[in-house]
Amino acid sequence: MIDIIVIGAGIIGSTVFYELTKQVKNVHLFEKNKEAGLEVSGHNSAIVHSGIDPHSNTLKAKYNLMGQAMYEDYAKELETPFKRVGAFVVAKDIEECKHLDLLEERAKQRQVHVVRYSNQEALSLEPNLNPDIISVLDMPTTAIIDPTHLSSQAVKKGVMNGGEAHFEEMIISIEPKLQYFEVETNKGTYQAKIIVNCAGLYADKIEALVGDATFTLKYRKGEYIVLSPQNPPVSSRIIYPVPSLLGKGVLYVPTISGRALVGPNAVDVDDFNPHPILDVSVEDMKSKMNQLLSNVPYELEIDRFVGFRPRVDSDDFVIHEHPDVPYFFTLAGIESPGIASAPAIAKDITNTMILPGLTSRLQGL
Ligand SMILES: Cc1cc2nc3c(=O)[nH]c(=O)nc-3n(C[C@H](O)[C@H](O)[C@H](O)COP(=O)(O)OP(=O)(O)OC[C@H]3O[C@@H](n4cnc5c(N)ncnc54)[C@H](O)[C@@H]3O)c2cc1C
């Protein structure tokens, strides 16, 4: 009998698997794709945010701040790149400056290091900023990673610790028995004492296999254009607009590979089929970016891609044990800042929920 089955090798499942294998030998990870980190974790901005954006008293704020503090060491431990490039939030008018004041205040409360710059100070640091901008909030702790590489490194190291990873093996059904779960995949049947559901865009469907669904996922699409490396880059920092109700807005993001991203937009959709990215969306993103940053080399466009944010109505992460099915844990609705939060979620949930669950299950046997 397997002690713990983790479903999904995105950044969440992979890091949970890795953390569990440090303390339990008999942990198995199941992923329907060939490799780790190919779904939501492979289609995003890859930013370790500073932690000032999420609303107070949310899991998003808690884990973003914890994750940001531990990321550099965690990336070293996993032998995956981490680069603290820093970020500017750019205000274009007086209204947006008021929003920067609020963000600055929140940063102070959360003890996140930020610096406020005038137009001239900001332009001396990033000369390609649009000269019409008014003010900037500098967030020097903001960093970038490669989430697909981090996920596969976490799986690799989890396997080195004694865990087992099953790729191209999809969970099809889960039946709760008195003392264990019976799990059927496209390749076989397994028994496990604990299940940890980290199935990203499918996490509600997986939870519904064992009992009444406690949440339903909604999807918000985000499209990007990818620019080939430019030397020197138009901006060495991430450039954010002032955030809106729909999220962080269209960004300029230098990536670990040297390429740059412009995006994402945010469109609520009913499914997560990757329809072609229309030129009209791209033109809209370019015009938003041009208000913040001039001279973006759009002629270097080499690719476009789309990511889907799995969301819930509460607008926060769902991290719980199923209320009617003990020992079945779900980590879902992990939209941004899921990348920034992953190491903190994995460590915290392992130690406060899953391992105590395993101990309790073993005592009941
Ligand atoms: C446009 C966009 C921009 C973003 N930008 C950022 C950012 O800059 N910073 C940040 O912190 N966060 C960002 N995020 C959020 C971040 O990408 C997610 O929070 C994170 O990747 C979620 O990881 P996950 O492991 O939960 O999901 P996933 O990566 O989707 O992993 C779930 C895995 O489960 C597997 N699976 C599903 N069903 C089954 C099954 N039945 N059997 C076996 N395997 C199964 C899937 O194949 C998949 O690999 C962004 C998201 C989007 C969409």
Summarize the structure.
The chain has 365 residues and is α+β, with helices and mostly antiparallel strands. Helix content is 31%, strand content 28%.
State the end-to-end distance. 12 Å
Level-1 CATH class name of the largest domain: Alpha Beta
Question: Could you give the order of the helices and strands?
Answer: EHEEHEEHEHEEHEEEEHEEEEEHEEEH
Low-confidence parts? none
CATH topology of the largest domain: FAD/NAD(P)-binding domain
Q: How is the main sheet built?
A: 8 strands, mixed
Count of DSSP-assigned helices: 8
Oligomeric category: single chain
Global shape: elongated
Q: At CATH's second level, what is the architecture of the largest domain?
A: 3-Layer(bba) Sandwich
Q: If you compute it from the alpha carbons, what radius of gyration comes out, rounded to the nearest whole angstrom?
A: 21 Å
Compute the number of strand runs: 20
- Helix % is 25-40%
CATH homologous superfamily grouping of the largest domain: FAD/NAD(P)-binding domain
Ligand inventory: flavin-adenine dinucleotide
Protein architecture, described:
It is built from eight helices and 20 strands. It has 365 residues and is of the alpha+beta class. Strand 10 and strand 11 form a beta hairpin. The site of flavin-adenine dinucleotide has 41 residues, from helix 1, strand 2, strand 18 and helix 8.
Question: What keyword list fits this structure?
Answer:
single chain; 365 residues; alpha+beta; FAD/NAD(P)-binding domain; D-Amino Acid Oxidase, Chain A, domain 2; five-stranded antiparallel beta sheet; 8 helices; 31% helix; binds flavin-adenine dinucleotide
